[in-house]
UniProtKB/TrEMBL annotation, chain A:
<dbReference type="InterPro" id="IPR006059">
    <property type="entry name" value="SBP"/>
</dbReference>
<comment type="similarity">
    <text>Belongs to the bacterial solute-binding protein 1 family.</text>
</comment>
<feature type="signal peptide">
    <location>
        <begin position="1"/>
        <end position="23"/>
    </location>
</feature>
<protein>
    <submittedName>
        <fullName>Sugar ABC transporter substrate-binding protein</fullName>
    </submittedName>
</protein>
<dbReference type="GO" id="GO:0042597">
    <property type="term" value="C:periplasmic space"/>
</dbReference>
<dbReference type="Pfam" id="PF01547">
    <property type="entry name" value="SBP_bac_1"/>
</dbReference>
<dbReference type="InterPro" id="IPR050490">
    <property type="entry name" value="Bact_solute-bd_prot1"/>
</dbReference>
<keyword id="KW-0732">Signal</keyword>
UniProtKB/TrEMBL annotation, chain B:
<dbReference type="GO" id="GO:0005886">
    <property type="term" value="C:plasma membrane"/>
</dbReference>
<feature type="transmembrane region" description="Helical">
    <location>
        <begin position="238"/>
        <end position="259"/>
    </location>
</feature>
<keyword id="KW-1003">Cell membrane</keyword>
<feature type="transmembrane region" description="Helical">
    <location>
        <begin position="12"/>
        <end position="33"/>
    </location>
</feature>
<dbReference type="InterPro" id="IPR050901">
    <property type="entry name" value="BP-dep_ABC_trans_perm"/>
</dbReference>
<feature type="transmembrane region" description="Helical">
    <location>
        <begin position="106"/>
        <end position="129"/>
    </location>
</feature>
<feature type="transmembrane region" description="Helical">
    <location>
        <begin position="74"/>
        <end position="94"/>
    </location>
</feature>
<protein>
    <submittedName>
        <fullName>Carbohydrate ABC transporter permease</fullName>
    </submittedName>
</protein>
<feature type="transmembrane region" description="Helical">
    <location>
        <begin position="182"/>
        <end position="207"/>
    </location>
</feature>
Length: 441, 274
């Protein structure tokens, strides 16, 4: 009996040691990610990483953006440890880092060159000076317009336009009988859809979401001017059915030559100038996000898809190795070597924008960098505000509140209610939600 | 005696039936059409004639491996349904042939569990799966899907068993059949059509389940619902690819449904006065 027991103990110990040894030999990283071009490219290049790091295996879990958020939030909140690396944006990083859910990334190795990260992006992903997520692609927003139509209409769009410049140009370029619309903007409801654009536009009009006591400000003259001008532009010069247009719909309209001006994420520039997909590839000009005369603010739109490690991961060292590889200069060069400089992930490293090859292949490079540099996510409005974030407000409640407000504004665009009613409804809804969440005492 | 139906009435009803069927089937048809378009065509607007390109199918297959989620879907759907039948046949037998005062209440209670939104119990179930090591395993999901569909399986079998005259079972008992023999050799063979339609309907329900199968899996046990979820993209065109992924995910179950229409219709309509 004793001998059997001892034998059993011995066998268990052996198995445990073997298990440990096995664990040391090979680690499997599970990476949760979204389905966009840069991430798909990274998945394709994973073999380069595993060849250089034979002890690390990589498993990808690709999910739709909202499902990903839901899955990852549940997993982190329950300390599930299902994922070793998460793909999250500038909205989540400050909120989750403050909760202690993310591992700080201040030791990504000597040759990582953290100082090369574009300061605006780095700030948006840091808390108390520590980096909590490493960016693999970043974007701001800018104006993309048809140079041929502008010339034909006899208008010029300056590099740093005002909203008056944009409205004048949009009016001149509109010819609805030829399905030629002066301006295409987001109208589909959602905190990351129409409200991303409208929040940036409101910032550039000098508006703010909340005053320093967290009272919503939709009853302010700045918000009224924002929504009125937005509706005027869309109703007079915009495409029909714009209340269901998001990024993808506008991209398609622009590529088919139906929009004169499109103001959206800078990442769109590489799509509209791609001759394979775009019929207007060689006729696109770029300008900074507009501002209202007298308001020193160009929207402050900034988004960076980034890689972060949840505190519940049991393979944090291997995860850091992967992140250091995937967001390094070397990775950018690897992509450029395989698919050309146009395919390099934009917006994260200053060195990319100093590269002459990249500048030659990407006509939008300078304007993208200028737009990202101009974004201040620490103070998005010219007025005093209690929050951070650019085209969003970095509080957990914003997803719900932003989407509810987006539905009111989308309804106003669809002609179901007036601008005044939409603003009043937004004010009432937001006040109620903020009181319920304990911000308004 | 059947009522005389005029030819015109017949034609009218036939057209109406086809119109309704087409209306219901149209979303699936349009998904198939969209999957055969290029991304540009897919987003361009409503058009019933695609350019018949297989580009999206190629991209979908090269980006993600189809066979792993497919195998998982088959195992989860078939496994959970068989498991549910093993539990539900004896339960439905007891309720149909030896009802008590509370049988109706129990049946209603079972059905009421289906009325609760799944997300309400997400965190407890997530934690149970984590602590018991069932997260991202086929066995865990099979059991969970079995539990989710059990009320419907029991209800369907119960309704079907009630149509079998109790006297036949009594006769079997008179001839010395044990309880096991009675269920296995008398009841089950007579109820085969009902069991078959229950089986088919539940395979379809389990195949299409898209909440728990996404929430409780990462890679190992992820079925086709997770496969589809990976093709929706926030930036960049994806409608044709998403449609292609959807067609690949629903094709097997569509074919199964096509071949077993008769049983399915019977399963969905029984309980009505015949």
């Amino acid at each position: 009996m004793t001998i059997t027991f001892r034998a059993l103990l011995g066998a268990t110990a052996l198995c445990a040691t073997a298990g440990l040894a096995g664990a040391q030999d090979s680690v499997t990283l599970t990476i949760a990610t979204v389905n966009n071009g840069d991430m798909i490219r990274m998945q394709g290049l994973t073999s380069e990483f595993t060849a250089a790091n034979p002890g690390i295996q990589v498993e990808w879990v690709t999910l739709e953006e909202n499902i990903l958020r839901e899955r990852v939030t549940t997993d982190i909140a329950t300390q599930g440890g299902q994922y070793d690396i998460l793909t999250i944006g500038t909205y989540e990083v400050p909120i989750w880092a403050a909760q202690g859910w993310l591992v700080p990334l201040d030791d990504l190795g000597d040759d990582y060159d953290t100082d090369d990260l574009i300061p605006a992006v780095r700030d948006a992903l840091s808390m108390d000076g520590k980096l909590y997520a490493a960016p693999f692609y970043a974007e701001s927003a800018m104006v993309m317009y048809r140079t041929d139509l502008a010339e034909a209409a006899g208008v010029t769009i300056p590099e740093a336009p005002t909203w008056t410049d944009i409205m004048t140009a949009a009016q001149a370029m509109t010819d609805k009988s030829a399905e030629q619309y002066g301006i295409c903007l987001r109208g589909k409801p959602g905190w990351g859809e129409n409200m991303a654009f409208l929040t940036a536009m409101a910032n550039s009009y000098g508006a703010r979401w909340f005053d320093t006591d967290w009272n919503p400000q939709f009853d302010s003259p700045e918000w009224q001017a924002t929504l009125t001008d937005y509706l005027t532009m869309m109703n007079e010069y915009g495409p029909p059915g714009a209340s269901s247009n998001g990024f993808n719909e506008n991209l398609s309209l622009f590529q088919q030559g139906k929009c004169g001006i499109w103001i959206d994420a800078t990442v769109a520039a590489s799509f509209v100038t791609d001759p394979e997909d775009s019929t207007v590839a060689d006729k696109v000009g770029f300008a900074q996000f507009p501002n209202k005369e007298g308001v020193d603010n160009r929207g402050n739109w900034l988004w960076a898809w980034s890689l972060a490690i949840p505190a519940s991961s049991d393979a944090q060292d291997a995860a850091k190795t992967f992140i250091a590889w995937a967001t390094s200069r070397g990775y950018t060069e690897l992509v450029a070597g395989k698919e050309g400089w146009r395919a390099a992930p934009p917006g994260t490293r200053a060195s990319l924008y100093e590269n002459a090859d990249y500048q030659a292949e990407a006509p939008f490079a300078a304007m993208t960098l200028a737009s990202i540099n101009a974004a201040n996510t620490q103070k998005a409005s010219v007025q005093d505000i209690p929050y951070t974030g650019g085209q969003f407000v970095a509080i957990p409640e914003f997803q719900g509140i932003g989407t509810a407000v987006g539905q009111q504004f989308s309804a106003a665009l669809a002609g179901q209610m007036s601008a005044e009613d939409a603003l009043a409804a937004a004010q009432a809804n937001t006040t109620r939600e903020m009181t319920r969440a304990g911000y308004i005492k | 005696m059947a009522r005389a139906v005029s030819r015109n009435t017949k034609i009218g009803w036939t057209i109406a039936a086809w119109a309704v069927a087409l209306l219901i089937f149209f979303p699936i048809l349009y998904t198939i059409i969209t999957s055969l378009k290029s991304e540009q065509e897919a987003i361009a607007g409503f058009d019933l004639i695609p350019s018949f390109t297989l580009e999206s199918y190629q991209t979908v297959q090269s980006q993600n491996n189809y066979w792993r989620p497919f195998t998982n879907s088959v195992i989860l759907a078939v496994g959970s349904t068989l498991l549910a039948l093993i539990v539900a046949i004896p339960a439905a037998w007891a309720m149909a042939f030896s009802p008590t005062k509370r049988t109706k209440d129990i049946l209603m209670w079972m059905l009421s569990t289906k009325m609760m939104p799944a997300v309400a119990v997400l965190v407890p179930i997530y934690l149970i799966f984590l602590r018991t090591g069932l997260m991202d395993t086929r066995i865990g999901l099979t059991v969970l899907l079995m539990m989710i569909n059990l009320p419907i399986v029991v209800w369907m079998l119960y309704t079907y068993f009630r149509e079998i005259p109790g006297e036949i079972l009594e006769a079997a008992r008179m001839d010395g059949a044990t309880l096991r023999d009675e269920i296995l050799y008398v009841l089950t063979p007579m109820a085969i059509p009902g069991i078959a339609s229950t089986l088919l309907l539940n395979i379809i329900l389990a195949w299409n389940e898209a909440f728990w199968t996404i929430q409780l899996t990462t890679t190992n046990a992820a079925p086709l619902s997770a496969f589809i979820a990976s093709f929706s993209s926030p930036q960049g065109l994806f409608w044709a690819k998403l449609s292609a992924a959807s067609v690949m995910a629903i094709a097997p179950i569509l074919v199964l449904g096509w071949f077993s229409q008769k049983q399915l219709v019977r399963g969905l309509t029984f309980g009505a006065v015949k």
